[in-house]
Q: What sequence folds into this?
């Protein structure tokens, strides 16, 4: 469960898609980012734009606070690992290089290219993380629908209560008029 939570922390939403960045995948698959990207470039026909795309500078800048927070918590453990993992840390990326974003389908396509046992196990965990996020989003949608229904009922009750208050006021006015 901890590994799925760790993966979920690396899933961002960009352009209406849930994605994982290349350096996060490299860490999860225990390969260098450049090796991962070289593998993808060699098999570019397998990665259409809805499977993988490169972030713009603005998109990457918008994600940096989240990325920095994630990696500030994990940085110590990253530096304790071998040098190949340190190279995947986003701060080590050349300033001009923008990361690639992989959608769920892109990650699934990677599973056919990276055949190490670690990559296979990690791919299974990543797919489970995407499924769990989808389940949570669906549940939140159900909760939103329920809240809308409750709000509509409350609005109806407010109208009914207002009518009751008006009727009571009219009765009190009539009683006061009768006493006079």
A:
């Amino acid at each position: 469960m901890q590994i799925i939570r760790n993966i979920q922390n690396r899933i961002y939403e960009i352009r209406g898609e849930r994605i994982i960045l290349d350096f996060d995948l490299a860490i999860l698959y225990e390969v260098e980012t450049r090796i991962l990207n070289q593998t993808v470039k060699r098999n570019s026909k397998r990665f259409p734009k809805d499977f993988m795309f490169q972030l713009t500078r603005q998109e990457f800048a918008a994600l940096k606070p989240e990325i920095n927070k994630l990696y500030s918590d994990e940085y110590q453990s990253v530096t304790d690992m071998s040098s190949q993992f340190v190279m995947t840390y986003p701060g080590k990326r050349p300033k001009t290089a923008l990361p690639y974003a992989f959608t769920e389908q892109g990650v699934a396509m990677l599973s056919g290219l990276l055949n190490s046992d670690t990559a296979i196990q990690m791919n299974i965990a990543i797919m489970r993380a995407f499924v769990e996020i989808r389940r949570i989003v669906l549940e939140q949608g159900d909760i939103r629908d329920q809240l809308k229904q409750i709000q509509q009922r409350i609005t109806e009750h407010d109208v009914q209560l207002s009518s009751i208050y008006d009727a009571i006021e009219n009765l009190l006015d009539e009683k006061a008029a009768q006493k006079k």
Summary: The beta strands are 11-14, 17-21, 52-54, 100-103. Residues 75-88 have pLDDT under 50 and may be disordered. Residues 117-179 form the longest helix (63 residues). The two ends are 76 Å apart (CA to CA).
